[in-house]
Specification:
Helices cover 38% and strands 23% of the residues. It has 269 residues and is α/β, with parallel strands linked by helices. Strands 1, 2, 3, 4, 6, 7, 8, 9, 11 and 12 form a ten-stranded mixed β-sheet that branches. It has a two-stranded parallel sheet with strand order 5-10. β6, α6 and β7 form a beta-alpha-beta unit. The longest helix has 25 residues.
Length: 269
C-alpha cells in the first residue's frame, strides 16, 4: 500500500505543478513596445483589455521610439509594437504590418510660469528658430525662452514639418535641448522655467503644463492642423492568439471610446 500512497501523492503534486504552469501561462506578459506618442492612451486601452478579457496581460512599457518598435518586432523579439509614423516600403517588405488606431494631435506646450496660453503659428516658428528668445516679446514675463526639441526622426516633429505653417524648412535653433523621448520632453518643459516643447496631445498634459492654442485653435479642435497617427505593428510569422486577441480589442468600439476620452480620434481598419 505504501507505494500506492506515494504514487498518489506524486500525482497530486504533479497536478499542482501543472495547474501552476497553466496559471503562469495565462498571466504571461504581452508587452507592446515602441513610441512614446499616445503612451498614456494606449496604457488605458491595455488596462481595459486586461480587465475584460485575454489570457495574456498586456503592458505598455516606456518608450523606445518607433524605430525601436520596428527593430524589436521586425527582429521577432517582440510580437507587437507601437509606431507614430508610417512603415517604409522596406519595412513592409520585411513582413511588418501596421494597424492604425487613432489620430493624436501634436501639441505645443510651455512651462506653467510662462503665462501665455495662445500663439500664432508664425510666433511658434519664430520661437523654435530662435528669432524670438524672451517671453516678454509675446506678452509674457521677462523670461528667457528655453527651447526643447526632438531629434529629426521624431514622429511629432515630422508631422509638424508636414502640417504646421512655417515648419517645413524651419531650421531649429542650436540654442536648444534635444529630448530623446516624449516623456523626456514633457519632464524637461515641466521642470524648466521658460521652457517650450512639443509632443503628442493628451488631456493629462494640462495638469502640469500649459497646452497652447495655435492660431486660435486648441489641439482637440477638428481644424487644428497638426496630428500624428498611432498604429500597432506585427509580423504574421510571430502573431499568435494573444496578439490577435489584443489587436481585435484595440480596434473595437470599446477601445475607441477609451481613446476618444483621452483626446484622440479613433480610426477603423
Amino acid at each position: 500500500m505504501i507505494p500506492l500512497f506515494v504514487n498518489f501523492r506524486s500525482v497530486v503534486a504533479g497536478g499542482f505543478v501543472l495547474l501552476a504552469h497553466v496559471a503562469g501561462a495565462r498571466a504571461e506578459d504581452l508587452p507592446i513596445v515602441g513610441t512614446g506618442d499616445g503612451i498614456e492612451m494606449l496604457q488605458a486601452v491595455a488596462a481595459a483589455y486586461n480587465a475584460e478579457a485575454g489570457d495574456a496581460r498586456v503592458s505598455v512599457p516606456p518608450s523606445i521610439g518607433s524605430g525601436g518598435a520596428v527593430a524589436a518586432v521586425g527582429g521577432e523579439r517582440q510580437k507587437l509594437g507601437r509606431v507614430a509614423r508610417p512603415l517604409s516600403e522596406a519595412e513592409k517588405a520585411q513582413g511588418l504590418v501596421e494597424v492604425p488606431l487613432a489620430r493624436i494631435p501634436s501639441a505645443i506646450f510651455v512651462h506653467r510660469g510662462v503665462g501665455v496660453r495662445s500663439l500664432t503659428s508664425a510666433q511658434v516658428a519664430a520661437i523654435f528658430a530662435g528669432t524670438i528668445d524672451n517671453w516678454s516679446a509675446l506678452g509674457g514675463p521677462d523670461l528667457k525662452i528655453r527651447v526643447v526639441r526632438r531629434e529629426e526622426s521624431d514622429s511629432t516633429l515630422s508631422v509638424l514639418r508636414a502640417t504646421m505653417p512655417g515648419w517645413r524648412d524651419l531650421a531649429l535653433t542650436s540654442r536648444s535641448k534635444t529630448a530623446t523621448t516624449t516623456q523626456d520632453a514633457i519632464a524637461t518643459v515641466r521642470e524648466t522655467p521658460g521652457a517650450i516643447g512639443f509632443g503628442p496631445y493628451s488631456p493629462a498634459l494640462a495638469g502640469d503644463l500649459e497646452v497652447l492654442a495655435i492660431d486660435g485653435r486648441a489641439p482637440r479642435d477638428p481644424a487644428y492642423p497638426s496630428a500624428v497617427t498611432l498604429a500597432l505593428i506585427y509580423k504574421a510569422a510571430t502573431r499568435d492568439a494573444a496578439a490577435s486577441a489584443f489587436l481585435a480589442f484595440a480596434t473595437s468600439d470599446r477601445a475607441g471610446q477609451v481613446m476618444a476620452e483621452r483626446g484622440a480620434a479613433p480610426l477603423r481598419p
